[in-house]
């Protein structure tokens, strides 16, 4: 069952201007591993974090630094959540987060689907 969906679009040039004006923004928004990436990839991760907040229905208990986007060996992006952000996802009954990201032509976008794989009283299989 789909619990929520979220989408976000980021203008990469505008994002770059923002982090140039406010360098500490990178520390507030991204984990140390993420900060090693190019700005267009960071813009896509910013979009992914915004899309997650939308899929969750709001930002209560969600912290940017507790959301990391990594890649599986196949290249598929996925969330690594910690702290109260991970707890919010569990509290909302979400078992799986499906994420896709892209950046092209000066734009970065992300789309997420938050899903419950089990129903009340049923184990995930």
UniProtKB/TrEMBL annotation:
Q: Which domain of life is it from?
A: Bacteria
Please name the SUPFAM superfamilies in this protein's record.
4'-phosphopantetheinyl transferase
Cofactor(s) in the UniProt record: Mg(2+)
Catalysis performed (reactions): apo-[ACP] + CoA = holo-[ACP] + adenosine 3',5'-bisphosphate + H(+)
E.C. designation(s) = 2.7.8.7
- GO molecular function terms noted in the UniProt entry: holo-[acyl-carrier-protein] synthase activity
Q: Where in the cell is it found?
A: Cytoplasm
Locate the 4'-phosphopantetheinyl transferase domain: which residues?
5-88
Supply the Pfam families for this chain: ACPS
Residues the record lists as binding Mg(2+): 8, 50
EC supergroup of this enzyme: transferase
Q: Which UniProt keywords apply?
A: Cytoplasm, Fatty acid biosynthesis, Fatty acid metabolism, Lipid biosynthesis, Lipid metabolism, Magnesium, Metal-binding, Transferase
The yes or no answer to whether the keyword Transferase is present is yes
Keyword Cytoplasm on entry: yes
The record's HAMAP family line, in alphabetical order, gives: AcpS
Q: Which family does it belong to?
A: Belongs to the P-Pant transferase superfamily. AcpS family.
What does the record give as the function of this protein? Transfers the 4'-phosphopantetheine moiety from coenzyme A to a Ser of acyl-carrier-protein.
Name under which the protein is recorded: Holo-[acyl-carrier-protein] synthase
**Naturally occurring in which organism (per UniProt):** Microbacterium bandirmense
């Amino acid at each position: 069952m789909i619990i929520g969906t979220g989408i976000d679009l980021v203008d990469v040039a505008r994002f770059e201007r923002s982090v140039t004006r406010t360098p500490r923004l990178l520390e507030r928004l991204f984990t140390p591993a993420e900060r090693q990436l190019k700005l267009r990839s960071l813009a896509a991760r910013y979009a992914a974090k915004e899309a997650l907040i939308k899929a969750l229905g709001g930002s209560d208990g969600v912290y940017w630094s507790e959301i990391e986007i990594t890649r599986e060996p196949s290249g598929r992006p996925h969330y690594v959540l910690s702290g109260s952000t991970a707890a919010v996802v569990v509290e909302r009954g979400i078992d799986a987060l499906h994420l896709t990201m892209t950046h092209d032509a000066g734009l970065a976008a992300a789309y997420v689907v938050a899903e419950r794989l089990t129903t009340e009283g049923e184990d995930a299989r």
